[in-house]
Amino acid sequence: MGTFRIEGGHQLTGEITPQGAKNEALQILCAVLLTPEKVTINNIPDIVDVNKLIDLLEDLGVKIQKKGPGSYTFKADDVNLDYLQSDQFKQDGRGLRGSIMLVGPLLSRFGKGYIPKPGGDKIGRRRLDTHFEGFIKLGATFRYNREEYFYGVEAKKLVGTYMLLDEASVTGTANIVMAAVLAEGKTTIYNAACEPYLQQLCKMLVRMGAKISGIGSNLLHIEGVDSLGGTEHTMLPDMIEIGSWIGLAAMTKSELTIKNVSWDDLGQIPLAFEKLGITVERQNDDIHIPRHDKGYQVQNYIDGSILTIADAPWPGLTPDLLSILLVVATQAKGEVVIHQKMFESRLFFVDKLLDMGAKIILCDPHRATVIGHNFQSTLKATVMTSPDIRAGVSLLIAALSARGTSTIHNIEQIDRGYENIDGRLRAIGAKIDRV
Ligand SMILES: CC(=O)N[C@H]1[C@@H](OP(=O)(O)OP(=O)(O)OC[C@H]2O[C@@H](n3ccc(=O)[nH]c3=O)[C@H](O)[C@@H]2O)O[C@H](CO)[C@@H](O)[C@@H]1O
Ligand SMILES: C=C(OP(=O)(O)O)C(=O)O
């Protein structure tokens, strides 16, 4: 189990460049299976989850060449489908959430797709019904081995149809889109997820020859084609990382510039921090966070009632930033309710913040009321364990703002999604060591 030792209480300064987006990379990498031709992908983050998926593709027989930092070519012209039945796949396929998106491309191109119950954060129930209901609607037969937690879909051919998704699942929509692009005829997907990473996937598929309209909306129309060709694709910057750096700057009273953020793809993210009173300045495509020497004041609603920050499917606020917004709120002036609607077990990490002296009432598994300290009292250093990727980064931000030296165990959770986080934090003045 890896550990960070963090000496808190230091102001940071300088520039930080966000990595390529983790959750986009997981979709895009799976899409290379849709064509026997070469696909070049740039700005791939060097993080544990993405590297595990690249290894899975290699084990499936995809030819992979590293061209430079973050740039690879992939050629899926000789895919080894037997690997999908191997014990190794049943083991390795579980290692991350994103592996579920191997199923759609495999099903549409080869007529079968299998996956062990995928991993990812333990943040509550993470069902897969939307994915498999979509495949079944396209004509696939579904099999589930309960002993092995092994899912499978098979089809001689997929036929386009209308479907109304039961929820706007991000990976579910990506999976169904990747199945439908090679199905016969027209597929309509209503209540589709439409976040920027899905838009990126759809745009990539269109460059490969797919016919998709409605990109960016929750109503996608797909006209199936016989085959897809190669392309080149570059990942957007990771919006959750960008939000993490905004929170870090405010909480440590630091002046930071976050470079090349692709502002127009950030949706509600800058607004959510502004609601906590944080100044988020746009400078071309950079974000500048000035030093918040006088702290930051939560904005109540017009009628004076207490602010609630809640997640919602895109273009609502992503659930992956709520843990970070919560930790930032512990030093705000004012009160805020954080309402994590999507996941059931993602707020339990507030226990660690309570140990550090934060004022938080966990109302129920979905809602926490935070009463900000307004920097009248700093958080106290402590020893903690990272329960999931975003809680881990939130605890890291808390530790960097705290008085004294904190220890965070189980940092593998953080490494799942943040590239060389300790090195990049040291470059802006943080005192953090990997021990
Ligand atoms: C690898 C990857 O890309 N992971 C992301 C992806 O996970 P993932 O695609 O697994 O998440 P889903 O979008 O399927 O659903 C997330 C959770 O929200 C609930 N839900 C979803 C849609 C909806 O309309 N109502 C609703 O309540 C689901 O039941 C589930 O509990 O999207 C999540 C939601 O943005 C993010 O937290 C994850 O980081
Ligand atoms: C929940 C997340 O990831 P995953 O879906 O891979 O568990 C996340 O990125 O915050």
UniProtKB/TrEMBL annotation:
The active site is at D121. Its main location: cytoplasm. UDP-N-acetyl-alpha-D-glucosamine binds at R97, D320, M342. GO terms for biological process: cell division; cell wall organization; peptidoglycan biosynthetic process; regulation of cell shape; UDP-N-acetylgalactosamine biosynthetic process. Pfam families: EPSP_synthase. One of its GO terms (cellular component) is cytoplasm. Belongs to the EPSP synthase family. MurA subfamily. This is UDP-N-acetylglucosamine 1-carboxyvinyltransferase. It comes from Croceitalea dokdonensis DOKDO 023. The lineage of its organism: Bacteria, Pseudomonadati, Bacteroidota, Flavobacteriia, Flavobacteriales. The gene is murA.
